[in-house]
Specification:
This protein has about 350 residues and is an alpha+beta fold. It folds into two domains: about 100 residues, 2-Layer Sandwich (Phosphorylase Kinase, domain 1); about 230 residues, Aminoglycoside phosphotransferase (APH), C-terminal lobe (Aminoglycoside 3'-phosphotransferase, Chain: A, domain 2, Alpha-Beta Complex), CATH 3.90.1200.10. Helices cover about 45% and strands about 15% of the residues. It binds 2-acetamido-2-deoxy-1-O-phosphono-alpha-D-glucopyranose and magnesium ion (MG).
């Protein structure tokens, strides 16, 4: 997209150049540059996924104002920038909302961690972010996608979609469908934990962590679009999903996916150091459940979309969502196979008698 295609070019400073940024599945993102280099990130909030996109931009302001007050947060924050008319958000004719935030210079994002230290850093940042959200009451942040991590509801919807899917698709995905039929009670188990609802990130994957270009240390948590009431287990779960094995979300050789215990240990250490003080005992004790939960839920989401002809996640080839499903299921199986070992690793990192051994 060039500047002329932005529905409100007059709202951007003169001589602004736009460059598309790839990364997220859902929203459009562009880097804005002027004479002095990149200065802002412009985003189009997808109105199909976020039914009320202005709630997303309102939430951003609420979250930013809450976090910016915390001098010891230990994270850089992309600040909201008003358009030339003074507004922080703009709706276009398609119903999408547009917003700008400051560009964090000298940072980079990655979808691949090749060192346990990277896992530690990412989890530390996500943990700090979670701790920073403490004190923001769940009522003050709109639930922009109701039931976002309600996997029981997602399972019920899957059953509808599966029933209506073409016989070809049902046949192609038969093993994956069978696997989910055999495993979905995990979603009931998570619900039965009655974990505290707090404001959490809800998409705490590696790609949403920024690292400092000079030190390699994690310095920011981005993509606050799904920051809303939920469970801390979901954030730990997404960290494990994206960092515990060196494999992309759409790995084409899922049989090669292997959990790296030292990465998992680093995730436990980082997350507990960053968020430990705000987590309840029940949350801490069930963190591993969060990893199983989010990985299986992500498989369910990809499979639902495959059967529904890719209406949610953009795909690069027709079976992309089935490939993603297989890779998430392979990861889930690996996590389950290693359950005892991972449980021992987590337990060794949990605080004893309220004194953290980190
Ligand atoms: C989507 O748009 P993106 O890449 O930040 C999705 C997450 C998934 C993720 C999988 C609103 O996030 O829930 O975990 O893809 N976001 C939404 O990579 O559905
Ligand atoms: Mg996201």
């Amino acid at each position: 997209m060039n500047k002329l295609e932005f529905p409100y070019p007059e709202l951007l400073p003169a001589n602004t150049r736009l460059k598309p940024l790839s990364g997220g599945h859902i929203n459009g993102t562009w880097l804005l540059s002027a004479g002095g280099g990149p200065y802002a990130v412009l985003q189009r909030i997808n109105p199909v996924v976020f039914r009320r996109p202005l709630e997303v931009t309102d939430n951003y302001l609420t979250i930013y104002r809450h976090l910016e007050k915390q001098a010891d947060l230990g994270l850089r924050l992309p600040a909201p920038i008003p358009f030339s008319n003074g507004q922080f958000a703009y709706s276009d004719e398609s119903g999408a909302a547009w917003r700008m935030t400051t560009f964090l210079d000298n940072t980079y994002a990655t979808e691949h961690a090749d060192r346990a230290e990277t896992a530690y850093e990412a989890a530390l940042a996500a943990g700090r972010f979670l701790a920073g959200l403490e004190g923001l009451s769940p009522e003050s942040v709109a639930p922009v996608i109701p039931g976002f991590h309600d996997s029981v509801k997602r399972w019920e919807r899957f059953l509808e979609v599966e029933r209506l899917a073409t016989p070809e698709k049902q046949a192609a995905a038969a093993p994956e469908i069978r696997f989910l039929y055999a495993s979905h009670q995990l979603f009931d188990e998570i619900r039965a934990l009655h974990l505290p609802q707090r404001v959490v990130h809800n998409d705490a994957k590696l790609a949403n962590i920024l690292f400092d270009g000079a030190t390699g240390k994690a310095c920011a948590v981005i993509d606050w679009d799904t920051v809303m009431p939920g469970s801390a287990l979901a954030d730990f779960g997404d960290l494990v999903r994206s960092l515990a094995a060196e494999a992309p979300e759409d790995a084409v050789n899922p049989e090669r996916i292997a959990i790296k215990p030292d990465f998992f240990d680093a995730l436990c250490r980082g997350f507990l150091k960053g968020a430990g003080e705000v987590l309840s005992r029940a949350e801490m004790d069930n963190l591993l459940q969060g990893a199983f939960w989010l990985t299986l839920e992500q498989a369910l989401r990809f499979l639902t979309d495959y059967l529904e002809n890719n209406v949610y996640y953009p795909v690069q080839y027709p079976d992309h969502n089935l490939v993603r499903t297989r890779s998430q299921l392979a990861l889930f199986r690996q996590l389950k196979e290693q359950e005892d070992r991972l449980h021992a690793i987590l337990s060794a990192r949990l605080p004893v008698n309220n004194r953290a051994r980190l």
